[in-house]
Specification:
The chain has eleven helices and 14 strands. By secondary structure, it is of the alpha/beta class. It folds into two domains: 187 residues; 159 residues, 2-Layer Sandwich (GMP Synthetase, Chain A, domain 3). An eight-stranded mixed sheet has the order 4-3-2-6-7-8-9-10, with helices on both faces.
């Protein structure tokens, strides 16, 4: 019995000694940064602007914004520490922002170091059209903490399938992938508001250009799949049985809004020289709204709408891929499909970039409207 108690005491002492060596983090002694923006200066130094909520009830200020300049993240954190009454920590970082100018020159150094320090669980990354400093330090009276506001804005749109997911880990995965290029939300400040204007495209770790949200929809559609997302386009009204004859001109188009219920895609490499892909996409959707009111009681009219949607989507996908080829970026991940289907052991990203310029694509879209909730 006595030996049993001795063994139990010894077993308890070990964990106590180990835990006693761990530094404790006291909330009242810590500044929890929720957003950090980075800008490159003329001398190649980096200016970081950080925002954190003020937890003290003794002051009316709700946000604390500080800025520091250095060449490394550790140097920046040390300089921020000299400005704050509590030690700054990145454990609650929700989003890291990089100016377009910084992203143009390449940002893997500062993104990579984020991946090696203690940051929040999967923070988002974003590109700012302008200076990150101007966006982070601005006053947003109706939006509260800017870090949390941006995080939940992106999170909501990722969940709603309006934006592709863009966490730190996903950016690093795509950067090191041989057959994918990263993409991030493209953000701008408009007065007292913040707007996600599209998706920034990258060649490696360098910003190249950006596309509108409706174009980013196709990147998401081909690269992943849609389970519940909204998209809209315009289709010809001729032959749709428009009830208002004043709107029946053959050259006229009608805006149409659909909500994806689910989608499937299949990408098949049919030729290696030059790379030729057959891209098949099947979409089941609900018709939410049309600018003109067609005769939806007629099944032939509904089939006509489906065919017009197919043709318009195929056309816009061809145009988008042509743009991406011109820019030399592959956010849709066709290189990954080429590598996996050729089982190439010596696949290299730079070699693929040259092949990608000459690649050919055939898009086949099949839309099925399974629910009608048309709005007049």
């Amino acid at each position: 019995m006595r030996k049993g108690w001795q063994w139990m005491l010894l077993a308890m002492i070990g964990p106590l000694l180990i835990s006693g060596c761990e530094p404790t983090q006291i909330l009242d002694e810590t500044t929890l940064i929720t957003v950090m923006g980075f800008d490159v200066l003329e001398d190649n130094r980096i200016r970081a602007t950080a925002s954190a909520p003020v937890v003290s009830s003794l002051v009316s200020q709700k946000e604390q914004v500080v800025s520091a300049t250095d060449t490394t993240l550790n140097g920046i954190m040390n300089k921020l520490d000299l400005q704050l009454d509590r030690r700054p920590k990145l454990g609650q970082l929700r989003i890291a922002l990089y100016s377009k100018e910084m992203a143009k020159r390449g940002m893997i150094e500062f993104v990579g170091v984020m991946d090696r320090v203690e940051v929040g669980l999967r923070p988002y990354l974003g590109i700012v059209d302008g200076k990150s400093y101007d966006l982070v330090q601005a006053d947003y009276p109706t939006q509260g903490n800017i870090g949390l506001y941006l995080y939940y804005t992106i999170y909501k749109n990722v969940r709603g399938e309006q934006l592709p997911s863009s966490t730190l880990h996903e950016f690093m995965r795509d950067y090191y992938s041989e057959g994918n290029d990263p993409y991030l939300p493209f953000i701008e400040r408009k007065g007292n508001d913040i707007n996600i204007k599209g998706v920034a495209l990258f060649k490696g770790d360098q910003y190249v250009d950006w596309v509108k949200p409706e174009q980013a929809f196709y990147i998401k559609l081909v690269r992943d799949q849609f389970r519940a997302g909204f998209f809209q386009l315009s289709i010809p009204t001729a032959g749709l049985g428009i009830q208002d004859q004043r709107k029946s001109n053959k050259q006229e188009t009608s805006p149409i809004a659909l909500e994806t219920i689910n989608s499937k895609k299949n990408i098949k490499l049919v030729s290696q020289h030059p790379p030729t892909f057959d891209v098949s996409v099947e979409i089941k959707a609900r018709l939410d709204e049309m600018g003109n009111k067609p005769d939806l009681e007629n099944t032939e009219i509904v089939k006509k709408i489906e065919r017009e949607v197919d043709r318009k989507m195929e056309k816009e996908m061809r145009e988008l891929v042509a743009l991406l080829q011109k820019k030399g970026v592959d956010p849709m991940g066709f290189g990954e499909h080429y590598r996996s289907q050729t089982r190439s052991a010596h696949f290299e990203k730079e070699k693929w970039r040259e092949m990608y310029k000459q690649a050919k694509f055939r898009f086949h879209v099949k839309t099925q409207i399974i629910r009608l909730s048309i709005t007049d």
